[in-house]
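re the bet — no i am not wrong, look at it urself. input seq straight from the record:
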Amino acid sequence: MDSSILAITPLADMTKNVYFLPMESTATIALLAYDDVDVLDVTGPTSVFAEANRKLGWQAYDIQVLSPEGGLVETASGVTLHTRPMTSVRTTKIDTLMVAGGESRGVRAIVASPRVRRWVRRCANSSRRFGSVCTGSFILAAFDLVDGRRVATHWSACERLAARYPRVLVDPDALFVVDGKIWTSAGMTTGIDMALAMLEQDFGTEIANFVARQLVLYVRRPGHQSQFSALLQLQVRSGAPFATLIDWIQSHLSDTLDVPTLAARVGLSERSFYRKFTDATGLTPARYLQHVRLDAARVLLAETGSLKLIAGKVGLPSARFTVAFEQRFGISPKLFREVHGGGVAKQAGRNVPPKIRSTH
């Protein structure tokens, strides 16, 4: 273990924490912004690190929002950010570099700058961690920093990234990916998830969970969780009254959810409910229920609890749970937990999925 890793307990409500950064030290977090950047790609991660500073009681993170020239940067949403010139911070002083995503015009301008390329590559070489949020992955790829590495990007850009940079291993499903010192996220709110995982790596789970609560997050999402929410997709697709029913199902997965019960919830006959639900969602009620139950189980498996207990929480008989999970995800629940149940440290270099292939 590195000598800088200290076991300390500076907070009254925390015990036996292992800190991956020395107490009272400061790590510089640099976020590279530019005109047409996505504002949440910058402000989401910075909010995580700023809240961590408040909780820890010292400036554990020196947060620097940088741009090529410094000054005011107009984001894609019209909000203006005040930035410092990227050269105002020595690259060797940067602990973590995050390149934000943005609109195509802004990304192209950054990629076309030899000066930015040199600076980013120097940072990547000397930093403890570097990566991107959303389409910032295109900048890393253009600068030859992620060849042969597994990366995440926004779902709508996966095929484009894979086609343009065929040596990059694009994971089209993950919320964020850790491959060695390279951290990449799918974008927007997933930058928050990734920053929380970085915080967990630095200062432990309790601090990360506290910050997540302070930011009023519904749940801390692990990197392996899919970008695509079955619940959200079907709510959008189905419309009323099934959108409300689907929301209710999500909080009652352990209940008996048969067709008579669900039909009664929306005031339809069983035959009419079955036909209309299938037409609206593209799935039979039984297939939808199994789909959403297995998605919930996948999240629970990254936490504690026996397989039998998890199966009960999502409303699946324990004998059928393992078979159904393996059929859906191609891996047993036990093996999935071994790979994903140990936090961010187990994500790096594990189970690299097949590279996405462009359909063009």
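see?? The domain at 6-214 is CATH 3.40.50.880 (Rossmann fold). told u. also The radius of gyration is 22 Å. so pay up
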